[in-house]
Amino acid sequence: MDGVIAPLRGIRVLELGNYIAAPTAGRMLADFGAEVIKVERPGTGDELRNWRLYSGTTSMLYRTINRNKKSVVLDLRSEAGRAVVLDLVRHCDVLLENFRPGTLERWGLGPKVLDGVNPDLVITRISAFGQTGPLADRPGFAAVAEAVGGLRELVGEPDRPPVRVGVSIGDSIAGLYAAFGTVMQLHQREVRRRDPGSAALSLVERTIDVALNEAVLSMLESLVPDHTAYGVSRTRTGGRMEGIAPSNAYLCHDGASVVVAGNGDGIFQRLMAVIGRPDLGEDSDLRANAGRWRRRDELDAAIGEWTATLPREQVLGRLEAAGVPAGPIYTAADVCADEQYAARNMIQYLPVETGAGEPREVGFPGIVPVIGEVSLPVRSVGPDLGAHTEEVLAGLLGLDAAEVAAATGGVVPY
Asked: For the chain, where do the domains classified as CATH 3.30.1540.10 start and end?
């Protein structure tokens, strides 16, 4: 990583997570320079390797979420495998996990044991409902968390059952919080170390507890305050945002769609002028957002009638010229062709084995946030299963081939 901005260089993370939540946190730490050692089960590895697998042996979903990491095979069902985990913990700053609460404890790898091995370790735990409370033992994926967290009730059309967004957004949000919590406590750990009069962080302070449902709930803005203050229960509004108008998606003459956000008072007047409806822009009932929300159907119809007469590019050009926020609804192909993403290095091409013979250049999303002017480079895609077992177990821990075989369920990589 010489010459590359890497603010987390020197931090070593042990990732015991599967699927999306903990691996997303690990990916963020790895993106900014942390050495992330991902522990996977023998044979199959992280189940994400087979999700959306169109060809080959490893999905692009796995390659994306586990980029910039090292893969080590360990059999955590064996005493030897668990012993190696504890040995690795001695050399790490952080442990990430997203097993069902109680799993690590049953394996003899609970926080108290980890603390006994490394009293500086930050332990970041992600679960469906958190490590405490009446639902702590209940399993759950992001779909359940999005429902219990209140998000699912808000997504979709009002006359249809709730739907979900097209990605595991609950897992990803939880991963973001986990990464933030981890960095926060790493920072606090260093602050205490620099102050001779301060006590080291306690185990409680070094344990980060992220619940999927709480992570989702935290994104819902004033949902709960509006309910408790005014008795308001928000419902699904389709492409609209509750209480804000006009802001929606509109179909253009060429079959493409655009999003138009004309909900600011001054913006609304400019928007009405562009679409040839200055009468609405001058209507006193529509000068404030409350009136526009009451007449949202009328406004959406007027805007939709205008967009239907022009192709997407002309719609966007006229709105841009008038200073009205608007944008195209992109497909993956649109994203790859977009000059703004390209200018900030937000689609990066790396050679990947896809099962089609020779490796091909595959586009991956860049690293967010940007430090400087463009995205930092993605150093490597999600690794092949066990690709770094020898490097880590032999190089870092000094294990011989027989010890590696015992810890990995018979896998001898060298």
From this structure: 247-251+257-328
Two tokens, residue 297: 């159907």
Integer angstrom CA distances of residue 345 from 37, 63, 68, 329, 375:
26, 18, 17, 20, 5
Q: Per CATH, which fold does 12-220+362-407 belong to?
A: Rossmann fold (3.40.50)
CATH 3.40.50.10540 in the chain, residues?
12-220+362-407
Q: Which two tokens stand for residue 83?
A: 């012993």
CA 72 vs CA 91, 108, 155, 184: distances in Å: 15, 20, 39, 27
**pLDDT tens per residue across span 343-375:** 999 999 999 998 878 889 999 999 999 999 999
pLDDT interval class at 414 (50, 70, 90)? very low
The DSSP letter of residue 393 is I
- State how far Cα 307 lies from the chain centre: 34
Say whether domain 247-251+257-328 belongs to CATH 3.30.1540.10. yes
Residue 140 pLDDT class (50, 70, 90 cuts) = confident
Cα separation, 86 vs 10, whole angstroms: 20
Our separate counts of H helices and E strands in the chain read 18, 11
Confidence of residue 241 (pLDDT cuts 50, 70, 90): confident
Tokens of 33: 């320079």
**Residues noted as catalytic:** 171
Q: By C-alpha distance, which of 69, 85, 76, 20 is closest to 43?
A: 76
Q: What is the pLDDT, as a whole number, of residue 355?
A: 83
What burial letters (b/e) apply to 142-173, b meaning 16+ CB within 10 Å? Answer: bebbbbbbbbbbbebeeeeeeebeeebbbbbb
Mean pLDDT of the chain: 94
Write out pLDDT tens, residues 368-394: 999 999 999 999 999 999 999 999 999
DSSP state letters, 277-317? -HHHHT-GGGSSHHHHHHTHHHHHHHHHHHHTTS-HHHHHH
**Rounded CA gap, 124 and 296, in Å?**
45
What's the mean pLDDT in 41-56? 93
DSSP strand pairing (207-211 vs 247-251): unpaired
Task: Retrieve residue 217's tokens.
Answer: 């709930």
Q: Of 8, 3, 62, 61, whose CA–CA distance to 31 is shortest?
A: 8
